[in-house]
Amino acid sequence: MSYLALAGCFLAVPVAVAAYATWRRRLDGRWWAATGLTIAALLVLTVVFDNVMIAADLFRYDEELLTGWRVGLAPVEDLVWPVAAGLLLPSVAALLEGSPARASVRAPIRPQARPADREERP
């Protein structure tokens, strides 16, 4: 099995969970924008650190199992993992939130009305 096929199988679960969370919790554009920014940050970090680790010869890939496309020294197959993590974790968090309507926007916390705290003086 190639690295791309393995990555595709692994990505199927986060995509399915994200689709279910979007349907169940009615996730809006703000949620998707935040998730997209998270994935973009994870991709940048993955590219930087994968290139450093490959350049330091910390690990190697079987070239026969790669597509041949690279970002620097890192194969594109390595970019599936941060996409999967950046999609799965916010989706699971959205599903675990309490209110089904507008799960990405929380209501502001308002102080509860309390009786007067001070004592009356004569």
TrEMBL record:
Superkingdom of source: Bacteria
InterPro entries xref list: Lycopene_cyclase_dom
Protein's pathway: Carotenoid biosynthesis
Residue intervals of the Lycopene cyclase domain: 9-92
Localization terms from the record: Membrane
Keywords: Carotenoid biosynthesis, Isomerase, Membrane, Transmembrane, Transmembrane helix
Pfam families xrefs: Lycopene_cyc (PF18916)
Region (Disordered): 101-122
Chain ranges passing through the membrane: 34-59, 79-96
Topology within the bilayer: Multi-pass membrane protein
Protein name: Lycopene cyclase domain-containing protein
Lineage, uppermost ranks: Bacteria, Bacillati, Actinomycetota, Actinomycetes, Micrococcales
